[in-house]
Structures are given as structure tokens and as C-alpha cells.
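FIELD: query
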Amino acid sequence: MNNLHVESADWAKDEEALVELRTQVFVNEQKVPPSIEIDGLDPQCKHVKATADGIIIGTGRLLPDGHIGRMCIHKNYRQLGIGSLLLKNLVEQALAANYPHIALNSQSYAIPFYEKNGFVVDSEEFIDAGIPHRCMIYKY
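FIELD: result
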């Protein structure tokens, strides 16, 4: 892949592109209601983006409480290791901020991905936005 970069995003500058990508993945593909996807918390989060040839193809966010969420990759760029790069960046930001814990809610099918990246399951399965999830925590 040409010119792949993973870096912190500037919500004020990147909001439109990040929301567009999240809408494609969560709302259009996974049928998450827009009112759940756009929850009003983004301005207080740290965001990360993956770009290829200057186009945003992946994103994720870190809430002030150490919770990682809204991780997604454009469907044409999945299975290339981009998710691991995004997750690593978010974990590094949380560690640098000395968060006492790092957690996320994984869609159940994605648990092996997060386990491979240092997270362990910490809950029973639950339904969020009509999709089975489990809480996972980062093992320091």
C-alpha cells in the first residue's frame, strides 16, 4: 500500500472525513442507528487516523476515561494490519496519559483481533446497537 500513515487526528480539521468513514462502516454496513454512532463525545476524545495516499481509511478514538472505541477501517483496506496500527497508537496515547486502565467493547467476532493486541475479555456477551459485544481490558 502506498503512503500509509497512522497518526493523531485533529477533530476540528478531520471531523467530516472521520464521521463519513464511521457512517459508511457502522451505519451503512452494520446498521447502527446514526443517533447511537454520533454520540456527542467526539470533541472530548483523542482521535487517530490511518491515511493512504492522503485519504482517511481508518480511525479510532480514546475517551478521557481510557475507553477505546469507534475503531473502523474502510472495507477496501481491511485485513492489511491497519487496525493493529491504529490500536497500538491509541494504547500508546493512553499509556502516555497514565490512564489507570484501558478498555474497549469489542464486537464478539473481533475478540481474536483484540486478544492478539494485548486485550483480554472481561465480561459476558451483551448486545449494543443490535450487535453482540464483550468488554475487554488491556493487560499492562
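FIELD: remark
The chain is about 30% helix and 35% strand.
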